[in-house]
Design a protein that fits this description.
This protein is an alpha/beta fold. It folds into two domains: 60 residues, Spermidine synthase, tetramerisation domain (Spermidine Synthase, Chain: A, domain 2), CATH 2.30.140.10; 224 residues, 3-Layer(aba) Sandwich (Rossmann fold). The chain contains ten helices and 13 strands. It has a seven-stranded mixed sheet, sandwiched between helices. The chain has a four-stranded antiparallel sheet with strand order 3-4-5-6, with helices on one face. The chain is globular. The structure holds 1-{4-[(3-aminopropyl)amino]butyl}guanidine.
Length: 292
């Protein structure tokens, strides 16, 4: 009998982000590993996902499936709004969200990440993710604590994308009521906030917490979903918060027109997917409506 292919795998990345379920990825090759004073960062090669970046043992992004996450994070608020000029990204040092934003001609992006290492390593080892966006003159790159930044700035943005890690460690502060309040005060009228809100099936309490905290601040708060293959547990939820309710009731025809006029090219996003992503399965709705 031939020996199983699995025997040739030297190392396994064992995520262990959630209790009771682990994502195991074969590590073909470790390209980088360092524990900085801020976080434990690793970049490795996997046969399915291409290069994978993990922070503190959790997959952040991969070459092969990042387009799903970043397209949905960016194009849903931008095309729903329809007239975005200024965008703030909190986190997102890999440059994936920034690359999607650079598809819009008339755009100014501020990216605030706490860790310069993430930016440098993403550019070096996973250049297709940022695709030059981190060096684009339309991008203002700020190395700072996002919480402090939104508290102190007097600038305003049409869309704020909170592209954070999960609410453990350095990312935890990016899920607090205080931080959401500070984000609200630097949002332009009609502005939209989107957040990385985890996988509801394995992160119910995180979903509910963000819903309650954002719900106390904004007139329209919900989530939209997409399945990111390297995030274990099913569909992930993006948080959506705005005072302008009409952004969420765009007709398919309106979305299709805005998409066509924008001239952007996508690989996951379509106006139909955009609309459908807001349809929440009943078990997710129940997490949001049940008594606390
Ligand atoms: N931010 C989201 C990380 C989520 C990790 N969760 C997980 N592996 N289930 C990633 C930054 C991408 N720009």
């Amino acid at each position: 009998m031939k020996s199983s292919g699995a025997l040739s795998v030297i190392e396994l990345f064992d995520e262990g982000l959630h209790s009771g379920v682990n994502l195991a990825l074969n590590v073909e090759k470790v390209l980088y590993r360092e524990k900085t004073d801020l976080q434990d960062l690793m970049i490795f090669e996997n046969s399915t996902f291409g290069r994978v970046m993990s922070l503190d043992g959790a997959v952040q992004t991969t070459e092969k499936d990042e387009f799903i996450y970043h397209e949905m994070f960016v194009h849903v608020p931008l095309l729903a709004h329809g007239n975005v000029r200024r965008v703030l990204i909190i986190g997102g040092g890999d440059g994936g969200a920034a690359r999607q934003l650079m598809k819009y001609e008339d755009i100014a992006v501020t990216l605030v990440d706490i860790d310069r290492t993430v930016i440098e390593l993403s550019k070096k080892y996973m250049p297709s993710i940022s695709g030059g966006a981190l060096d684009d003159p339309r991008l203002d790159l700020v190395i700072a604590d996002g919480c402090r930044f939104v508290k102190e700035t007097d600038q305003h943005w049409d869309v704020i994308i909170i592209d954070s890690t999960d609410p453990h460690g350095p990312g935890e502060v990016l899920y607090t009521a205080e931080f959401y309040g500070d984000c609200k005060s630097c949002l332009a009228p009609g502005g939209i906030i989107t957040t990385q809100n985890g996988v509801p099936f394995v992160q119910e309490s995180e979903l509910r917490q963000s819903y309650d905290r954002l719900g106390a601040l904004f007139a329209d708060v919900t989530f939209y979903q997409a399945a990111i293959p390297s995030y274990v547990g099913g569909d992930m939820a993006f948080g959506w918060a705005t005072d302008e309710k009409s952004h969420r009731s765009r007709s398919l025809a309106e979305l299709a027109e805005t998409y066509m006029n924008s001239g952007i090219e996508t690989h996951y996003y379509t106006p139909e997917v955009h609309q459908a992503a807001f349809a929440l399965p009943l078990h997710v709705q129940k997490i949001l409506t049940r008594e606390a």
